[in-house]
Amino acid sequence: MGLRLERRVDRPRWLTVAVPLASVAVALFVGGVVIALSGNDAVDTYARILERGFTSRGAFTATLTAATPLLFTGLAAAAAFRMGVFNIGGEGQLIVGAIGASGAAIALGDSASGPVLIVAMVVAGAAAGAAWAGIAAVLRAYLGTNEIITTLMLNYLAINLATYLVFGSTSAWRELTGTGLMFPQGKKIPDAARWPGIDFGNFTVGLGFFLGTAIAIGLFVLFRATRYGFSVRVIGDEPRAARYAGMRTRRTILSLLALSGAVAGIGGASDVGGTRYLLDPKALGQAGYGYAGIVVAALARLNPLAVVGVSILMGGLANAGRALQGPDFPAGLVGTLQGLLLVCTLAGELFARYRVRRTAPTPATPGAAA
Amino acid sequence: MSESDVARASAGGPPPALAARGITKRFPGGVVANEHVDLEVLPGEVHALLGENGAGKSTLSNCFTGLYRPDEGTILVDGEPVAFHSPRDAIEAGIGMVHQHFRLVESFTVAENIALGEHGPVRRRADAARVRELGERYGLGVDPNARIWQLSVGQQQRVEIIKALSREARILILDEPTAVLTPHEAEALFEVLRRMTAEGRSVIFISHKLDEVRAVADRVTVLRDGRSEGTRPLAGAESRELARLMVGRDVSLTAEAPTRATAPTDEVVLALRGVRATGEHGQESLAGIDLEVRAHEVVGVCGVSGNGQRELAEVVAGMRPPTSGTVEIAGTRLAKADPRAAQRAGLAHVPEDRMHTGLSPSLPIEDNLALTAHRRPPLSTGPFLRRRRIRERAVALMADYDVRAPGPTTPTRVLSGGNVQKVLLAREFSSDPKVLVAASPTRGLDVGAIEAVRSLLVDAAERGVGVLLLSEDLDEILSLSDRIAVIYEGSILAVVDRADADVEELGLLMGGDRSHLADGAA
Q1: Distance between CA A165 and CA A154 in Å, rounded?
Q2: A364, B367: Cβ pair inside 8 Å?
Q3: Most Cβ neighbours (<10 Å): which of A39, A42, B49, B176?
Q4: Is the separation of the CB atoms in A101 and A268 below 8 Å?
Q5: What is the ipTM of this complex?
Q6: Which of B319, B353, B360 is facing A234, going by the closest CB pair?
Q7: Please, is B398 exposed, middle or buried when counting C-beta atoms within 10 Å of its C-beta (0-12, 13-18, 19+)?
């Protein structure tokens, strides 16, 4: 008696919902075993994560704040991955987006009104992110350079550029008065440039999260219902067929990577305008939003709408981990849970793609017969 | 019948090299691909497996090669029951297979593909020498250092055969091997097979072509709808009887020229003037082609594979830039290599590689049917697709062209070869073309699908389309074309009217021998 995998011809619709949910359940169960093995009460730990991540006062607001950058980088990764273009550079594109947005806000200064400042930040962030991704896009489209490597390398360039602007030079991004004279730090953007939030009573939703959700819906429509999305699918599936059909493969690679970079760049603008109010290379470097975004995109199976939900889940875990860390809450637990979620979701894909069958007992193998 | 074979085997003869007893293989969705199939392949024989597409030939051979495990029944090698858990088990048992769709790594060289999957260190020079040695021994010459993507389909098949031979297969299964070969190449292949059987090896020759089965095989087993219709020696078996067993009805065996209601007019819809182009190696593959196709006309281009047919089709389709010369489609000169411009000028193109060039395999049928038409109304409005119209059009086209599939959202890659080609043809004809370039449009299809495709080509010519038919099947060229052009090393050696065509003469021209032309002119 053995087990055997058989590829499904058609994937039933219920599976695309049931499999991810079951994967999450399995991940939580395995996580619970890990918690128990580490000498803690699994149920109690989960209850505390739920409380500090989602239900307690102010928790959901903090969770959404943590989720916002993941939402942008997750969407950026999902958009590019849909065409089989592996943009690993969400990290760098987010950082240059933050540079662009903070630069725009500082350059306009107190003279401009809030809305003008915010729009300028979004535009500057998107443009910077698109341009950064555009470098890799041009190399890929015209020279066939592997975008995984170029986007990854550009991440290091971006973080070093941001570090240089704040720590290595007397640029416009660096605070040169007050405490900034004693320790190098980023210059604050004007108060009017701070992104507002909308209060829902129990919690507040920042403008960045709204913007990200709107972009998610936009991307969903783009991929589902436009000629552009159609081309992206064909190019991603079979470039030869795309060429045969006269699709503009090069142009699509350029535009999709630029779009992906722009979304990550707006994430950088949102980070500056909604959370930190200055360019903070150290915090951005440590956060690793770009890489976490790839995990979010994978968990969401590249569906832009699912990215919204997954980013909230991951943001909540990160937020709870931060709030709960201490002697009775293992520091690595949240990372472990996030890793388990990813592994279980990817493993769950197997069951969505294949059907498991039991096989009848088989006669002797050729080896045994010989 | 198989019972008598069993009796003979048990009566002291050598055990069959390979045998199947009661093989049953089911697929999800209730499809029974093989049902209690019995087969015995004797040492030193060419055993033909005859049947239409979908009769279960490929499934049975996949059971022999360890790709599938049968749900019921046993496989015996030299009389010993075996169970293959992977293709490696089958290879070790001495079973080699040349698949219809090649299993080659495109970016590797020929020698690297041969060495692939073998243990031990990579020795490039030794591998290359082995390829050359096997190639010379069996007449399968191919450059060991060429990369697979640079080779024509016919050349790639030679690589597959060499691969199996280099693994010392005692039983070689060939799935529709002649589908990609010219008659001359096929005859050379048969010679290879005869040499193999003379060495005591066995060959399972899968085909749906009666004449070639007759030419090469010793015995034949006919499969229909997954069931065996029995085994018989070819000596004494009537072709008509075999055909009836294969399709379950009487069929006409002669490739009669279908009569067409219209004659070619004077309107030139496709004109190539002095077209030169380079191939994948950068070598000159088209050396100044002058060719015209008129409305209502079918021009057949025949030649041994790898003589520029692929490049010719690609240049006309705007997928390969000519280095000099011009291409005009319905009076529009193609300014640069642009498939979209060619389509707009009125071109439809059925490429040689249907599944990966003509179609996007993972996309649903409905999207593949809209692959080019989705850009224009009514299937899109501005940048937005009209999904419902795409669906409705797909349903209508599938009904018109008799595409058999669960539905319009089924991924195209799960369809059978004939249905894949119907999807492609449905899409290309629905664009109302002026010119159709069809490259090997019936290759690998079963008798029914071949008939359907050919009649669609004839219909197109009747509607006024100029058809450029590139095919390695000389019978097909002869039965469909008004004029026949022979291509050799990138040049058109001669263009003859069908009425004046002589098979022997064409064969000589395909081999580059034009001496008899000079005689005729003198």
Answers
A1: 16
A2: no
A3: B49
A4: yes
A5: 0.84
A6: B360
A7: buried
CATH number of the domain that residue B511 is part of: 3.40.50.300
> Could you give the percent of chain B with pLDDT greater than 70?
90
Take residue A194 and report the two structure tokens written for it: 């701070």
**Residue B147 is assigned to a structural domain of this protein:** no
Whether residue B448 lies inside any domain: the answer is: yes
φ, ψ at B321 (rounded to 5°): -75, 130
pLDDT over 90 (residue B315): yes
pLDDT tier, B252 (very low <50, low <70, confident <90, very high otherwise): very low
pLDDT, greater one: A225 or B100: A225
Q: Which of A8-12, A74-78, B436-440 has the lowest mean pLDDT?
A: A8-12
**Of B380, B407, B432, which marks where a domain is finished?**
B432
Rounded (10°) angle between helices A207-225 and A304-324: 150
Mean pLDDT of chain B: 85
Nearest by CB to A227, from B375, B406, B411: name it: B375
B305 plus B377 within the same structural domain: no
Reduce the DSSP state of residue B39 to 3 states and report it: strand
For residues A78 and B241, give the distance between their C-alpha atoms in angstroms, rounded to a whole number: 59
In Å, how far is B164's CA from the nearest CA of chain A? 20
Q: Which residue of B171, B329, B357, B381 to mutate against A (max A Cβ within 10 Å)?
A: B357
The answer to whether A338 touches A31, Cβ cutoff 8 Å, is: no
- Gyration radius (Cα) of chain A, Å: 23
The set of residues, in sequence order, having a beta carbon less than 8 Å from that of B232 and lying 6+ positions away, is: B219, B220
Residue B129 in 3-state DSSP?
Answer: helix
C-alpha torsion A137→A143→A149→A150, nearest 10: -50
List pLDDT tens digits, range B302-312. Answer: 887 778 999 99
Q: With b meaning 16 or more CB within 10 Å and e meaning fewer, what string describes A130-161?
A: bbbbbbbbbbbbeeeeebeebbbebbeebbeb
CB pairs < 8 Å spanning A and B? 108
> What average pLDDT does this structure show over A37-60?
88
> What pLDDT, in 10s, does the model give residues B461-500?
999 999 999 987 777 888 899 999 999 889 999 999 988 8
pTM of the entire structure?
Answer: 0.74
Is any Cβ of chain A less than 8 angstroms from the Cβ of B85?
yes
Domain-ending residue, one of B372, B398, B432: B432
The rounded distance, in Å, linking the Cα atoms of A333 and A320 is 11
- Please judge whether A225 and B343 are an interchain contact, meaning their C-beta atoms are less than 8 angstroms apart: no
- The tokens for B401 are 């062209």
